[in-house]
What we know:
alpha/beta, Helicase, Ruva Protein, domain 3, Dna Topoisomerase Vi A Subunit, Chain: A, domain 2, 2 domains, 4-stranded parallel β-sheet, 8 helices, 11% strand, globular
Amino acid sequence: MVKQTPLIDGLIDAFSRLPGIGRKTASRLAFHILRTSKEEAEDLAAKILDVKRRISVCSACFDLTDEDPCPICQDSERSVEEICVVEEPNDLLAIENSGAFKGKYHVLHGTLRPLEGVGPEHLKIKELLKRLEKGGVKEVVIATNPTREGGTTAVYLTQLIKPFGIKVTRIASGVPVGSEIEYTDSVTLSEAMEGRREV
């Protein structure tokens, strides 16, 4: 294997540590940086340092923000009666970009993964329950991913929330719009059938 200079190899190694970035993509990114102007590279580096210095978690919903509370928590036009629980900040962003939810959020920062030693104490579950204890919430929408871990977390949260007398819903999962049933996997089809509703 041909080795680059230690500086270029170091940059490739740094990029390859990013999630979803393999060695080949990391190499492309490194050479892209080398082709850009010094000003562009400095701007990228400054932006990375800026988010590391200025971004923290919202004390109310635990989303990533540069102000506390975050803009969504500050928005008086959003419903305080609905809380959408998500795994990670990027899940919140995806739901927010859909425009389908107008309530408040709560970010867990992960899912229950007992085999990996991740229990309720590692997530923002206790903080969610404190929010519910204050009253005013009528529905909690659990928007965890349709994975084994997401499902386990949803069931656990439902058991904790039900005693509050709060309605608990889970986002539907099923056949994506534009896809064909013939090519849909059996788990997705099963969930689509179980989540069917009257028309």
